[in-house]
Amino acid sequence: MRYLIAMIFAIVAAAAATVFVSSPIATWVVDRMAFESPDEVADLHSMVFMGVNLVALAIGWTIGWWLGNFEGSQSET
Length: 77
Fold this sequence. Notes:
single chain; mainly alpha; 3 helices; 83% helix
């Protein structure tokens, strides 16, 4: 059950980051740098976008893993 909860939280966190967080952060990073080619802009934007999504996925998994420990925290009396 713990794995299922972790996967659900990871999917929700990654989806939320994709919709609300990744693009503004990627655009902010790209705006701070100077480029010689539009391809470099697109490459960096894509890398930052995917990196933020990966971090959100890991954070969601960690939160779900931590919250999914409700079975192990109950004492057997």
